[in-house]
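User: Some background: our group keeps a shared notebook of sequences we're curious about, and every so often someone picks one and asks for a predicted structure to add to the entry. Today it's my turn. The entry only has the sequence so far, pasted here. Could you supply the structure so I can complete it?
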Amino acid sequence: MASHTDYFSKLKSFDAYPKTLDDFRIKTFGGAAVTILSVLLMLSLFMSELSYYLTKEVVPELYVDTSRNQKLKINLDITFPKIACDYMTLDVIDTTGEQQFDISHSVFKKRLDQFGSEVEAPVEEATIGHANVTTNATELEGAERDVAEYKCGSCYGAETTARPCCDTCEEVREAYRKKGWAFTAPDGIEQCQKENWSEKMSQLATEGCRMYGHIEVNKVAGNFHFAPGKSFQSSHVHVHDMVPYTNVRFNTSHIINQLSFGDVYPEMINPLDGSTTFTSAHSIMYQYYVKLVPTTYFKLSGEVIATNQFSVTKHQKGAAPTSGGDGLPGVFIMYEFSPIMVRLTEKQRSFMHFLTSVCAIIGGIFTVAGLLDAFIYRSSKVIQKKMELGKLS
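Assistant: Of course. Here's the predicted structure to add to the notebook entry:
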């Protein structure tokens, strides 16, 4: 029995936390203040560490991009406050020679007034080539007689075998364009007079346009651009017909609400989102040179997001195509791909790392608080003793 007692007595000598009797413990106001501050600091740091632990860790890796035969989806939302929708077209050209003209199946336009509010499109009445719906027998006979006597509109010398007549002002403009003629006198054309074409053009001077949607392109270098004038290909050259707009001055100020190359992953940053470019000058050609970095994002849930990060540089210059100048007013976005692919993988943070950090927080604050409390207590005792001896000046 004595051996066991001696054994426990020796074991007590290893106690690194010796205790004092309660009767010898002194509680002070300074110690209470240090304790409260220490607990608050511990709780604050613990919550910070907990919130960090609950977030996902994203691990980046670099690879050579070996993907082939893929399509790229470009999401866009751009506002032109000073150019009407009737003027603007969106075209795509890539290095393979593939071209997409005046994309409208996946890109939509919204008319804006001079204050940036949306303008509802009016319901247009049918004129040439359409009979009004009537219920009166006399009106019906008159309508049938009009149809029987109907003659297609003149193209004013621009008729072709494929288009022998022009029923609308737009068809006359298209016929002139194919002939290479300038469309400069709409007031002398019957179809344009019936459609109040000149009045509509004057109204467009105060309108803006928002273009939004998406386009799909080949995964090769290329460009897409927003520019006025109907686009077409002539002798393997991409051309915009600016002849009808000889007297129109285009202000290409624009707001890029959104521009992304692929789907968006969590906390992804697209550098052009929300960028604004305003100018008082006219006929400016804005060029954005985009360097795409293919990126694959792996979520913890197993979902895989294929997208692209990008960097961009911007350049601008004057353009006056109708007077023989170089360039075209509008916004041009040229893109090319990096051969390096980034792989981002979500991972859960280590619980052991979290536990270690919590212990370090508690232990560190407890130790520092003990030293601070001892310093305050001993300083107060020294000051109190000097005051009793009358030595405190």
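Suggested note for the entry: The radius of gyration is 38 Å. The longest strand covers residues 284-298.
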